Amino acid sequence: MIIPKESKLTIEQLSTVTAIVEEYDCKLQVIVGHHRSVYAVLGEERKTVMVNRILGLNFIDRFDAVDSPFKLMDSSSELAQHKIVLGNHIVGEGPFVIAGHCTIDPKNPNLFIESAHAVKEAGAKAIRGGVWKPRTMPYSFQGDDASVKILMEARSQTGLPVDTEVMDEHQLRIAVEARVDILQVGARNALNYSLLKSIGQMTQNKKIAVLLKRSMGMGPVNEFIAAAEYIAAAGNPDIMLCPRGTNPTMDGYRNYPDESITPLLKEKTWAPVIVDPCHSVGRAKYVASAALAAIAYGADGVIIESHLDPQRGIGDDPKQSIQPAVLKQLITDIESIWAIKNRTVIADN
Ligand code: PEP
Ligand code: MN
């Protein structure tokens, strides 16, 4: 990775560097960071002659070759300084709670808007709402393009960033054009490398973050981080990792809860971890404990399905959404665990 002396390269400097790396069959990917841009060399980046030529340029500060398969997502990467800013919040500084309906019901937009206000009141920092849904059965409600408007109305009324899942390029285009703040890659698509690349390319430089769910079948931690690397290598480093339970399930829960993977992720990568306890346990009454466990494990936040009237919801809401009053108490408890956790970290040092 090439780090310039100034906050970014000029157009002429960029074309000089690009020409050099291309001579050595590498590609240059600009990664626009919060404070400065860095330039990832994609390909075999350890060619000594290439590195020396780049280091010889008077506008280059450093060339960091990361000793890891994850050049961008590894904790030792220059991007470890990178901060994801969503609304008024820097992810990682205080618990980041995303909350709202599993699914937006296009026939009842007001209910979604009212829930959005209620979760904001409860202390959520962003709002979730499924516009398009990956459903097990083709006959179940699949979502509706029209719900994007409802999601964006919630954004303008509450002033909070919004999150929705995209499953294909058509949905991706609509969501990017609407300026959705967080694009969710669902568990079923976490290994869809073409989609991951398209998302990285189409969200590059647009201040749109990606919440990458862990797939139900994902085994090693590295497979999860590699999926994130695809998005970053395509141009967008604003990635949050989201454990959401795996298969086979734990008897009684919807999936096998995996918030305990958080410290392992945090050791290997700098990406924030936002745990999804709702899809993990699948029942409203277990959600709060799983969310608190996630924070105790060091997660940067949680994504929670929350609905004013879960029984009138669609998709997962009747089973696993918690009411905003319960969310409010949960967020207070999350703040307490967060404080204890930070105190522990200080004591450990
Ligand atoms: C969801 O967030 O509603 C969802 C479908 O999640 P997952 O992809 O984790 O199943
Ligand atoms: Mn859901």
Task: Explain how this protein is built.
- The protein has 349 residues and is α/β, with parallel strands linked by helices.
- The protein is built from 12 helices and 14 strands.
- The protein has helices spanning 11-23, 48-55, 109-122, 147-158, 169-178, 193-203, 221-233, 262-268, 277-281, 284-296, 317-320, 324-348; strands at residues 2-4, 27-32, 37-42, 60-63, 85-86, 89-90, 96-100, 126-128, 162-165, 182-185, 209-213, 239-242, 274-275, 301-305.
- An 8-stranded parallel beta sheet has the order 12-11-10-9-8-7-14-13. It has a two-stranded antiparallel ribbon with strand order 1-4. A two-stranded antiparallel sheet has the order 2-3.
- The protein starts with a strand and ends with a helix.
List its salient traits.
alpha/beta; eight-stranded parallel beta sheet; two-stranded antiparallel ribbon; 12 helices
Characterize this entry briefly.
The chain contains twelve helices and 14 strands.
Radius of gyration: 21 Å
Which strand order do you get reading across the main beta sheet?
12-11-10-9-8-7-14-13
> Could you name the ranges where pLDDT drops below 50 across 5 or more consecutive residues?
none
Structural class by helix and strand composition: alpha/beta
Helix and strand layout, with pairings?
Elements: E1 2-4, H1 11-23, E2 27-32, E3 37-42, H2 48-55, E4 60-63, E5 85-86, E6 89-90, E7 96-100, H3 109-122, E8 126-128, H4 147-158, E9 162-165, H5 169-178, E10 182-185, H6 193-203, E11 209-213, H7 221-233, E12 239-242, H8 262-268, E13 274-275, H9 277-281, H10 284-296, E14 301-305, H11 317-320, H12 324-348
Parallel strand pairs: 7-8, 7-14, 8-9, 9-10, 10-11, 11-12, 13-14
Antiparallel strand pairs: 1-4, 2-3, 5-6
Bound molecules: phosphoenolpyruvate and manganese (II) ion.
